[in-house]
Amino acid sequence: MTEHLTVCIVTFERPTFLVRCLEGLRALEGEPPEVVVVDASRNAVRERAELAFPGVRYVHAPLLAGWMTRSRNEALRWASGEVIAFIDDDVVVRPDWAKAIVAVFADPAVAAVGGRTCNGIPGEEHYDLPIGALRADGTLTDGFAAARDAPVLIDHGIGANMSFRRGVLAELGGFRDDYPGTALREDTDIFLRVRAIGGIALFAPQAVVDHRAAPHVQGARFDTRYKLYGRRNHVVLLARDQGLGSPMLRRWIARQFDGIRSAGGMLARARRLGVTSLGVSWGLAVALRQAGLRPTPARRTDAGGKALRRTLSARPLRPSASPPPNGPPTFALVIPTHRRPELLRQAVDSALRQTRPFDQIIVVADGRDDPASALLTELPVEGIAIDRAGVSAARNRGIELARTDWVCFLDDDDLLHPEYLQRIELEIESDPEVAALNTKCWSFASPAGPAADFDATTLDECLERSAGVVPKNPREYMRIEGRSFDLLLERMRGAMSTTAVRRQLITAAGGFPEGMITAQDWVMYVNVARLAEWRCIGEPLAFSRDHAGTVTRSANPLKGLTALRAIQGFWQPSALPTPSHRPLDAYRPHYRRVLEWALAACWRARDYRTFREALAVGDDLLRRRDVVYAARPLWLRRSYWGELLNDRH
């Protein structure tokens, strides 16, 4: 019942409470849910967490300290459930909590659920006001410990025990991650945004957790800071939901200043006046800068929101309904494309010129308005256009349409050698046990740059100029037979346009991860290697086009961060087998180079937020001295001066 539920916990410097929380999850009735922990503490407690809940996905992200909303969004990147629940690290769930959550979401109209959170306070089960309501004066009601016989409609829930449908979080783009300090109102914000897009939120009294609160910092300084952020965040919340010019916001601000009179003593009144004035002014300035007088759209449109939307919208690969035919092996070729019709025509032509023809050629246009969609009716291929979702979704759709034993892949800007498939088939006939194959490839460009093997534009030119030529890069690193998983942990050691995998194997491996803007092929290669050894044919049997649009020529900060997250994912617990491999220390020199590339891209783009996120991932993988070395200024790097000299010449 709970196999489609992911439980997310964000924690900071409270390992004892985290362990207790995880032990409570282990005592849940039924199948254990997926559990993701994002720990912003200085020191990792991965071993203690895994002992308390075997299989937990533990993510150590110390640079997220002080940003609960960003930690929640980090947890969303690792969650795979259709229902995603958040609990605080200082709660203990009751044994039937997960079943109660899943039961409420059985109604497809329900988008969000706030569970009952018991604090052990006498009489808290009785509450006379509406539970979880946003009132006309801008104040919020509580009542999340109240006992009710049935679910109750609410405006907002409590962050210690809240759950959402995955599709709703995808539509919203995750949590707004700019509620700083104590992160007050970030939970209210997400519920109000659910309401703004027409979703139904319920209080589920049967989904109970016991809040055994951890001790908080005490003292006037902390209390003042807490109240300051509380006022600032509440102003931002109401401005976003109602608009800066709303009567509700005006009434709430007036209420805050009216309350100053009730403070005892002149000093207390002066302190409260200062905190209220500063907090309200700060909140108004932030809201004015972000939206103006109108409410802010519920759906995030910034880069972080779009990335989370892609991640959360990714769907698992479904096996093809058609069984593969009996007899000799059959092959399908999947070509994803996006707005490159002329290059696609060349790619398809190279597939049609095979000495051993493909049994299926499937072209998937990534975008229904893609110019290549019109071309699909002219070519002798099976063509389909999908909603814009990225290259992984296009490849996965092609796998689902395949009716063959094997699936091969070709990028729309690359070309196949006419003998590619014949050589693949001969390799399979010589060893029927092989399940995943790759070949070497040539690199070409026009004009040829330093990385290209020769100057060419068409397949005929490639065939003519590759004859008798020794490749500049022999690509010996692609020979990974016998220890492919271990070697793939270091780096990507394949070329997608020469890849052939048994259809059942790539389906079992989960296909391509959707929602990533790079490293999708690397993740697929690693997951296939968990189930079978890769085989590399030593002959170059494809032509890879080197041009400005390729991933390796792009220094996009988000691409660097995505590659780091892919590496981080390799070291998380997996439902797939984990073959023998070297310890993490053996891979650190390779990972440091990826971190250097990511940080340099961030620095050139002045994207300091992505820079900090990349550092957080680096801290989880590398030693501190490696992170410091990777983060050194550009002018201390040899490559920087080499690029500068090349530019001047």
UniProtKB/TrEMBL annotation:
Any coiled-coil regions, as ranges: none
Pfam families: Glycos_transf_2
Gene3D superfamilies: Spore Coat Polysaccharide Biosynthesis Protein SpsA, Chain A
Residue ranges occupied by any Glycosyltransferase 2-like domain in the UniProt entry: 6-172, 333-434
SUPFAM superfamilies listed in its UniProt record: Nucleotide-diphospho-sugar transferases (SSF53448)
Region (Disordered): 295-329
Protein name: Glycosyltransferase 2-like domain-containing protein
Organism for this UniProt entry: Agromyces bauzanensis
